[in-house]
Amino acid sequence: xxxRDTLHLWILAGALALVGVGFFTVRGLTxxxxxxxxxxxxxxxxxxxxxxxxxxTTRGDCAACHETLKHEMGKSHAAxxxxxxxxxxxxxxxACKTAxxxxxxxxxxxxxxxxxxxxxxxSICLHCHQQMVGRATKHPQINFPDHMxxxxxxxxxxxxxxxxxxxxxxxxxxxxxxxxxxAKPAEAATxxxxxxxATPAAGGAE
Length: 206
What we know:
disordered C terminus; 2 domains; mainly alpha; 10 helices; 206 residues; elongated
């Protein structure tokens, strides 16, 4: 009599036990082994992120080959990253790695720099140096129309107008060759050696 009256309880207990076993089985199969290693956190998460291929580079990656430009930028643009003006350089880095591997001792390595050379220097410069009410007064900034009147550039409508008076990597310097103001900075950014130190990145910017 007692067994018959409690049969529904045994059925319920068995169902709950099956649910519990199923829950802990699925939990054991789905939770990563390193979960909880450092608290409520997957311990291997940082290593997983580190193992992913980098898409962007730091200034250090670029400076591994472009040491001269690193020195020039250190004078006034020390806080500016290469990618802010040149964009991502994954293809450039990959091309340099490939060119270096194929080069023979003594060969000059030339890297593809497609899409690395800015085509509108004015917009890039004004992004940081256009006079704005909320911008710190100690930050170098100009009222562009007034600046053009005061300096009377040879071609004020050119998107590269800033380079007629300033060297992009070190704006405190003036271009040394008046005949080819716009070409020289672009040439200066051309790498002469493949990035040995940047090989693991293969996906950055100059």
